[in-house]
Write a structure and sequence with these properties.
single chain; mainly beta; Jelly Rolls; 6-stranded antiparallel β-sheet; 18 strands; globular
Length: about 190
């Protein structure tokens, strides 16, 4: 097990692919040997962003996306064929980067976290842990994000206190148990495939 505390002062900020806003890149991975770290070389990305006005989502062919509201409420994603309901915070929705989506804000601006991965390169999961207890983590990379306040977790016999400003990156060679001791954390999980 390898753990790294990712500090907010080291996060990068970049424009959305469609230029409609700014996201905070918490952690990502790109194809080894890529000359540029861009959307074409992206394997996965965990990021947060405010959504302050209704508008279209970026078109991201070949990317699978998971999203969760962590601040505010009332977000709905609308496509020509379905609606993704994120009105309640800490609800995970899954959609593809090819899906034409326009946001609706029913109660003002929201803050979301996104976990994106290149289809066929990684399998991803995104879950909120709100009640103290255990959660099995498979081998892979996991990002433990304190959505608000301080989240206290135990992993491999070690205790970690994660403030809202930071994220704990956990790289597991084999499955392990994460225990939420107190607070609320969001766990993004990535398993590279192929």
């Amino acid at each position: 097990m390898k753990t790294t505390l990712l500090k907010s002062e080291d996060y990068t900020r970049s424009p959305w692919k469609n230029g409609g806003g700014i996201f905070t890149d918490i952690a990502d991975a790109h194809r080894p040997g890529s000359s540029a770290k861009d959307w074409d070389s992206l394997l996965w990305r965990f990021a947060s962003t405010p959504i302050v006005a209704p508008g279209p989502f970026s078109h991201m062919p070949g990317i699978d996306r998971l999203q969760m509201v962590v601040g505010g409420r009332g977000l709905v994603l609308r496509s020509p064929t379905q609606e993704f309901d994120e009105r309640e915070p800490f609800t995970t929705v899954r959609f593809t980067g090819e899906t034409e989506i326009v946001t609706a804000l029913e109660a003002g601006p929201v803050e979301v976290v996104n976990l994106m991965a290149r289809r066929g390169a990684a399998e991803i999961a995104l879950a909120a842990l709100r009640e103290p207890g255990e959660r099995q983590l498979p081998a892979g990379t996991h990002l433990v994000y304190a959505a608000r306040g301080v989240g206290r977790v135990r992993l491999g016999g070690e205790d970690f206190a994660i403030s809202h400003e930071n994220t704990l990156k956990v790289e597991l060679a084999e499955a392990s148990t994460l225990t939420l001791v107190s607070g609320l954390v969001v766990v993004g999980s990535i398993r590279l495939v192929g």
